[in-house]
Each structure stands twice: as structure tokens, then as C-alpha cells.
Amino acid sequence: MASLSSSFMFQAIAALIAALLSLIGNAIAWHIPVLDALPGIFIIYAIALAGIAIKQALDKIGVLKQIPAFAWIMLVGLIVSIPGVPGADLVVKYTNNVAFLATCTPILAYAGIAASRDLPRLKQVSWKLAILSLFVWIGAFLGAAIIAQILIALLGL
Description:
Elements: H1 4-30, H2 34-61, H3 69-80, H4 88-95, H5 100-115, H6 119-124, H7 126-155
Helix pairs in contact: 1-2, 1-5, 2-3, 2-4
């Protein structure tokens, strides 16, 4: 098993690459100047590093090992952006200059690459996965359409 520091460094570098790609995507697709988005990207990167550090520290002492790093990152992000928490106003102000979809693109690309490691397993369940994906997409679309229709009716639009 890799040491805590080498594993942390690997994840920190991966998060840095995702942050830089997000910064580029933010500038190209949403026309937000790099210098305007840089503080927000830095804050998001720091939140990611804090969540990764929490996960690895808890893993090392054997507590809450089943909770993924993503959950810790989300918890840290939630806490630092709660109104009333010192610095929350700055966190929200600067991260508002980062388009959410700009951060999703490199993360989803990484997820696709990570999924390719399990290609033999995916070949075994390919048709089942395709059917399941179809039902998930249909359900998500219908769910969103139903909620939108209810809100339109309630608001009288």
C-alpha cells in the first residue's frame, strides 16, 4: 500500500489538473476571464485537498473508512460556505466566478478513464448496463418534466 504522502500527492496532482482544465473550460465556454476565476478555482482546489486529507487521515486511524473522499470534500465545501461562517462570504463571492459545468467536464472525463480499467467487467454486463442506463435516462427526463410541469401549473405560467 502506498504511503499517505505519496497517495495524497497523486490525488493533489490529479485535482490540480482538473482545476486547471476547469479554469480553461471556464474561460472558453463561459467567457469568464482567467484572473477573475482563479481565486474561485484556488478555493475549490483547497476544499478538495482538505477533503482528501480528512479521508486519508481517517483511513489511517481506521475510522469511517467506508465514506468516500468525495463526501468529505462536499462536507468541507458546505461548511466553508454556510452563511455566518467566517470567510463564507468570500468563498461564495469568488466561487461564483466558476461555472459549475466547467468543473464537471474534466471530472467526468477522469471518471470515464477510470471506468475503462474495468473493461472486462463492463463487457460482461454491457447489455444489462445499456438497459439500466436507458431506464435511468428516461426516469431522470420524466422526473424533471413532471416537476417542471407541476411548477409551471403552480406558478400559473
